[in-house]
TrEMBL record, chains A, B:
Pathway: Amino-acid biosynthesis; L-tryptophan biosynthesis; L-tryptophan from chorismate: step 5/5
UniProt name for this protein: Tryptophan synthase beta chain
Known catalytic reactions: (1S,2R)-1-C-(indol-3-yl)glycerol 3-phosphate + L-serine = D-glyceraldehyde 3-phosphate + L-tryptophan + H2O
Family per similarity comment: Belongs to the TrpB family.
One GO cellular component term: cytoplasm
Gene3D superfamilies recorded: 3.40.50.1100
Complex and partners: Tetramer of two alpha and two beta chains.
Keyword flag Amino-acid biosynthesis: yes
Role, per record: The beta subunit is responsible for the synthesis of L-tryptophan from indole and L-serine.
InterPro entries: Trp_synth_b-like (IPR006316), Trp_synth_b_CS (IPR006653), Trp_synth_beta/beta-like (IPR023026), TrpB-like_PALP (IPR001926), TrpB-like_PALP_sf (IPR036052)
Species: Longilinea arvoryzae
Domain of life: Bacteria
Gene name of the record: trpB
Length: 457, 457
C-alpha cells in the first residue's frame, strides 16, 4: 500500500452522527447576549431568525447527534470525500514529512460549506420555513445554501458583499443557476442597507453588513422566512465534523496518525470540522495531535484580536458573544484577495484557543499565493485562496520537518477549489497583488470599540 | 445496496492497459494523406509534429496497450473517477429508467482531457521533446495539457481561439497558473496567423486556425518542439478508454449493464473513451448496447456532414483524413455557446458510424441548456455545456422509457464541469441565448469545398 495516494471510503462509511465538542470541552460556554438588552438571549429571541430544531441543536450537549437520513442521502452525492497523500508536493519540498489533505472541493458547490447548508435547509424545511435568507462574502456559503434550498424546494435570498458581487460574476451566475435570488449588499431592500447607502452611496459592503441585511429580512418576514449562517455558530461547526470523522477512518486506512491537523479560519467552521474529532481523541483517548488554525495576517482575530464580548454583525443586530474579535466595525484591508474576512471567531473555538487546546497562526497573502501555486503545479488542484492559508502552513510545517529530519505526519483540510478565484491568481502571477498588513493602531483601538457588557452574577 | 448512488473503485482497480478498438473494428482504416502531396503519409511526415513513440501508438493494432507506471501514478490523482446513479434526476423525470453517469469532471483540470494530456506529455518527455505546442477552443484541452506539461517539466505554448480567449478569462488564468504561455489565435507569431490577421484584422479565430498555428510552431522548431492534439486521432481515443474500462467494472458493482451508452462528440474523444470498451463487449461478447454519440445541431458533422477525405485544419497543413466533415473551412454559428465546434470527426469513429456500429443524434442548444439546468438543480453538479449534450439525450432516452414503461439502463459520460462556462449559463437564464440553426445551404455546399483526392489503387 506504500504507493497509495487516495484513501476512499464508500457510502456505507459515511458517518451516521455529528460530533458535538460541547460534550467534551472543558471550557464552559459564555452566555450569548441580546444586542438590545444585553441580557442573555432566550430561545424566543433567536426564533425570529432560526427554527426551533436548529436552536435546540445550537445548545445541545449530547456527544453525538444523529444525521437525518434525508441529509445523509444528499451527502452521498459527494461524501465521503477523498483523503489524499500529497506525494508530489512532499517530493518537491524534499521533506521527510508525510502530508495528507482532506479534499472538500469535490462537493458540487465547491467547498465544505455544503456540509452545513444541507442540514440547515433540511431542518428549516421540516420546521415549516417557506424561504431562507443569507449573506455571502467570497460566495462559497451562498452557493452551498442555494444548492441545498433547491434540493428542498425552498426559495433563497442571498445578500452578497458588493465588492465580491462585482469581482466574482461566476459565483453570482452559479447561485442563480441553482435557482436562488442574489443581491449586491448593501441593497435598498432593508433599512440597514438603505442607511448604509445613504452614508456612502458607492458602499462596497462588508460581511457584517450583509449579515445584518439577511437577518433583517428574516426577522421582519412574520416568521415564514428564516436566516442561515455559514460559520461561527455551534450547530454549523457541528455539521462540519463529518470531515474529521471521515479523516480519522482514512488516516487509519493510510496506517498513520497526524501529529498536526491544520485548517484555515474565517468564522472557524472548516477548521473545527476537521479538528474537533481529533480534539476528542486528544481529550478522551490520550492522543496529542496539535490542532493549528490559520488566519490571514489581514484579519488576525485570534492572533492579534481581543477575547471579549462583541456584536456578531456591524449593525449590532446579531447577538453579542464572547469571542476573539477585531471589533464588529472592522473592515479588512481592501488589498486582501481571499475570503476569511469576518471580524470575529466562533465563540466555541475562541474558548478552546483561550484554554490552550488549539493553536493559531497568521500568514500573509503573498506567502499564501506562493503556496497555492506550488500546490497547483505539483498536486494539480487549484485551491481556494482561503484553503491555501492551510497549505501555506502545512508547507511551513513540512519544511521545518526537513530541517529537523522529523518524519512528521501532517493533515490539512483543503476546504475548497479556487475555480471562481482565478482573477486573484492572475493578480498574483502578474505581480499586482500586495502583501496585506494591518496597522498596529487598528489593533490597539479594538477595546474601546466593544460594547459595554455587565454580566449577570 | 439498492440505495447506493456512488460506485467507487480504488487505486488498485485503475486499468493497467488502454483498449485499442483497431484490434476489433471490422472497419479497415482509410489511408491518411499528406496535405501537400495527397499521397499517404509516412511516419517521417508525421515526425515533425509528433515523437515516434506516439506515431507508433497511432498505428498500433494490439488490442491492449500497457499504461506506463509514470502515467498511472498521475492518473491516481483523480482516477478511478466515480460512477454515479442519478437517482434525484430519475425521480424528477418520473422515469422507470436507471440513469448512471461517469463523472470525469473530478480531474484537476476539470474534464476527461487530462486522460490523454498526461500520456502525451509523458511520451514526449521520454522522447526528448523540450517543449510542446497546442491549440484550445473552449479551454479544456489547453488546461489539461498545461497541467501535464508542468508535471513533466516541459514548456507549453497554447493557441486559444480568440473569441474564447476573450470570453473565458478564467480559463486563460488557469492555464497560466499551471505555468504555460497562452496566446489569442490568430497571433502574429506564425505565418498562418499573420495571413489570417492581414485578411481580417479583428479575426475571432477558429479551432482549425489555432491548430494550424500550433502545428506551424512545432514544425518550424527544428525538432525540439512537438505538437499535441486533444481529440480526433487514434492515440487520443485510445488514452480515453480508461473511462469505459472503469465504467464496465462500476456497472458490475451496481449490478446492471447499460442498454445505451451516451457521450457528446466534437472530435470524438470522450464518447470513444466511454463507448469503445462497451463496443468491444458488443463485438466480442455478444452484448447489444446501443452506443449513441451526441453532437450540437450547430456542428452536425455526423448527422448532416459528408463522409469524405478532408483536411484536419483550415490552413490545409494537417493531414487529409477520411471522416464525417462539414468542410475544413466551416465556421460554426457564433451564437453557439458550447465547445464541440470542430468541423470534422475522428476518422476511426467516422468509420464505425458509417458501418452502423454506433449511432448519432444532434441536439439544439436551448434544449441542451434546459437539460443542464435541470441536472444542476437535481444532481448538484454544474455540467460543461459540451457534456450537457449527453445529458439532454440521456434525459430524452429516460422520458421515452417513461412513455413505454421500459426499465432501460442508461449510462452517459459527464465529461467535465462547467465552472468556467457560467457566462453561457447566465445568457441562457436571462433569455439571451438563441437556438443554433444551420442553414441547409451550408450543408449542400460541403462537397464542393473538399479536396480532390485520387486514392492509390
Amino acid at each position: 500500500m506504500s504507493d497509495q495516494i487516495r484513501f476512499l471510503l464508500n457510502d456505507t462509511d459515511l458517518p451516521r452522527a455529528w460530533y458535538n465538542i460541547n460534550a467534551d470541552s472543558p471550557v464552559a460556554p459564555a452566555p450569548v447576549l441580546n444586542p438590545a438588552t444585553k441580557e442573555p438571549v432566550t430561545p424566543d429571541d433567536l426564533a425570529v431568525l432560526f427554527p426551533m430544531n436548529i436552536i435546540e441543536q445550537e445548545v445541545a450537549t449530547d456527544r453525538y447527534i444523529d444525521i437525518p437520513e434525508e441529509v445523509r442521502e444528499i451527502y452521498k452525492l459527494w461524501r465521503p470525500t477523498p483523503l489524499m497523500r500529497a506525494r508530489r508536493l512532499e517530493k518537491a519540498l524534499g521533506t521527510p514529512a508525510h502530508i495528507y489533505y482532506k479534499y472538500e472541493g469535490v462537493s458540487p458547490s465547491g467547498s465544505h460549506k455544503s456540509n452545513s447548508a444541507v442540514p440547515q435547509a433540511y431542518y428549516n424545511k421540516i420546521a415549516g420555513t417557506r424561504a431562507m435568507t443569507t449573506e455571502t462574502g467570497a460566495g462559497q456559503w451562498g452557493t452551498a445554501l442555494a444548492m441545498a434550498c433547491q434540493f428542498f424546494e425552498m426559495d433563497l435570498e442571498v445578500y452578497m458583499v458588493r465588492v465580491s458581487y462585482n469581482q466574482k460574476p461566476y459565483r453570482r451566475n452559479l447561485i442563480e443557476t441553482y435557482g436562488a435570488r442574489i443581491f449586491a449588499s448593501p441593497t435598498n431592500r432593508t433599512s440597514v442597507g438603505r442607511a448604509a447607502l445613504a452614508q456612502v452611496p458607492d458602499n462596497p459592503g462588508s460581511l457584517g453588513l450583509a449579515i445584518s441585511e439577511a437577518a433583517e429580512v428574516a426577522a421582519l418576514s412574520g416568521g415564514h422566512k428564516k436566516y442561515g449562517l455559514g460559520s461561527v455558530l455551534n450547530h454549523v461547526l457541528l455539521h462540519q465534523t463529518v470531515i474529521g470523522e471521515e479523516a480519522l477512518k482514512q488516516m487509519d486506512l493510510a496506517g498513520e496518525y497526524p501529529d498536526v491537523v491544520i485548517g484555515c479560519v474565517g468564522g472557524g467552521s472548516n477548521f473545527s470540522g476537521i479538528a474537533f474529532p481529533f480534539l476528542r481523541e486528544n481529550l478522551r483517548n490520550g492522543q496529542r495531535t496539535r490542532l493549528l488554525a490559520v488566519e490571514p495576517a489581514a484579519t488576525p482575530s485570534m492572533t492579534r484580536g481581543v477575547y471579549a464580548f462583541d456584536y456578531g454583525d456591524s449593525a449590532q443586530m446579531a447577538p453579542i458573544v464572547k469571542m476573539y474579535t477585531l471589533g464588529h466595525d472592522f473592515i479588512p484591508p481592501s488589498i486582501h484577495a481571499g475570503g476569511l474576512r469576518y471580524h470575529g471567531m466562533s465563540p466555541i473555538l475562541s474558548g478552546l484557543y483561550n484554554a490552550g487546546l488549539i493553536e493559531a497562526t497568521a500568514v500573509r497573502q503573498l506567502d499564501v499565493f506562493e503556496a497555492a501555486v506550488q500546490f497547483t503545479r505539483t498536486e494539480g488542484i487549484l485551491p481556494a485562496p482561503e484553503s491555501a492559508h492551510a497549505i501555506r502552513t502545512a508547507i511551513d510545517e513540512a519544511l521545518q520537518a526537513k530541517e529537523t529530519g522529523e518524519k512528521k505526519v501532517i493533515l490539512f483540510n483543503l476546504s475548497g477549489h479556487g475555480h471562481f478565484d482565478l482573477s486573484a491568481y492572475s493578480s498574483y502571477l502578474s505581480g499586482q497583488l500586495e502583501d496585506d498588513a494591518l496597522p498596529e493602531a487598528e489593533i490597539t483601538a479594538i477595546p474601546e470599540r466593544l460594547p459595554q457588557v455587565s454580566l449577570p452574577a
